[in-house]
Amino acid sequence: MEAYAIERHLRLSASKARLVAELIKGKSVTEARAILRALPHKAARYLEKALNSAIANGVNNFKMDEDLMYVSDIFIDAEGPLKRVLPRGFGRADIIRRPISQIKIIVKEKEEV
């Protein structure tokens, strides 16, 4: 059984978020939470929020046991950039592109042997 959560439209670079995501992939959810709380990165806050949502989805919707859950997979995709216009001299304009990302975290329950 698996549960997932998706966070969309995050003002975050996908490449920077992937570095943090690799630290928690394959870990138990309690260990992943502890790692994310200790990290100073902006991506860690977003990943922790998505992880908590995925855990809640598994517990409430699929009756999964939180103690047996682990982070099975994480997908971080870049969306199109957020565009802003900065006025310049002589009637010109510069376009500022800011990165937008989305996070999908999948948690699964370990099979008891």
UniProtKB/TrEMBL annotation:
GO molecular-function term, one example from the UniProt record: rRNA binding
Family matches, as InterPro entries: Ribosomal_uL22 (IPR001063), Ribosomal_uL22_bac/chlpt-type (IPR005727), Ribosomal_uL22_bac/org-type (IPR047867), Ribosomal_uL22_sf (IPR036394)
Keywords, ordered alphabetically: Ribonucleoprotein, Ribosomal protein, RNA-binding, rRNA-binding
Biological process (GO), any one: translation
GO cellular component: cytosolic large ribosomal subunit
Gene3D superfamilies: Ribosomal protein L22/L17 (3.90.470.10)
SUBUNIT field: Part of the 50S ribosomal subunit.
Similarity section: Belongs to the universal ribosomal protein uL22 family.
Described purpose of this protein according to its UniProt entry: The globular domain of the protein is located near the polypeptide exit tunnel on the outside of the subunit, while an extended beta-hairpin is found that lines the wall of the exit tunnel in the center of the 70S ribosome. This protein binds specifically to 23S rRNA; its binding is stimulated by other ribosomal proteins, e.g., L4, L17, and L20. It is important during the early stages of 50S assembly. It makes multiple contacts with different domains of the 23S rRNA in the assembled 50S subunit and ribosome.
PANTHER family: CHLOROPLAST 50S RIBOSOMAL PROTEIN L22-RELATED (PTHR13501), LARGE RIBOSOMAL SUBUNIT PROTEIN UL22M (PTHR13501:SF8)
Protein name from the UniProt record: Large ribosomal subunit protein uL22
Species whose genome carries this gene: Caldisericum exile (strain DSM 21853 / NBRC 104410 / AZM16c01)
